[in-house]
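FAQ: What does a ligand-bound record look like?

Like this one, built around zinc ion:
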Amino acid sequence: MSALNELYQEMIIDHGRRPRNFYISEQANAIQEGFNPLCGDKLTIYLTEKNGVVENVSFQGSGCAISMASASLMTEAMKGKSVEEVKKLFDIFHKIMMGEKNPDALEALGKLSVLTGVAEFPSRVKCATLAWHTLMGALKHQTKIISTEDEK
Ligand code: ZN
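The answer part, i.e. the structure of the complex:
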């Protein structure tokens, strides 16, 4: 295994064990539940969105290390970004997770690119994308539970 891959794995394990932004936010103006039935990952995203900016995003839930690490890294990265930027990052991330190979896109993701190694394990892709789909649901102020099985 390359040193880079090892670093990526360590980061995922670290965030999986000690997720950042893992709390219920009382200030949230959008709360969205997400569920990945394939693995049993469940999480709730607490989003505070003001004037087109993600002021705060936190989460709670339980699931495998990949789902928790993805939510942890994502919430860290999205705080302070505009809704437009968040949507753009989601599109880039989603395409890579669906198998697109694009070095420029990887660079755009910055630290989040550690998650894209999961794309090589199709059975775990939905663990990594769950938090992201759930955040998108929160931005749309959807009320139904986001399920990774509803993806088209
Ligand atoms: Zn999982």
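Follow-up question: can I read anything off the structure? Yes, for example: The mean pLDDT is 92.
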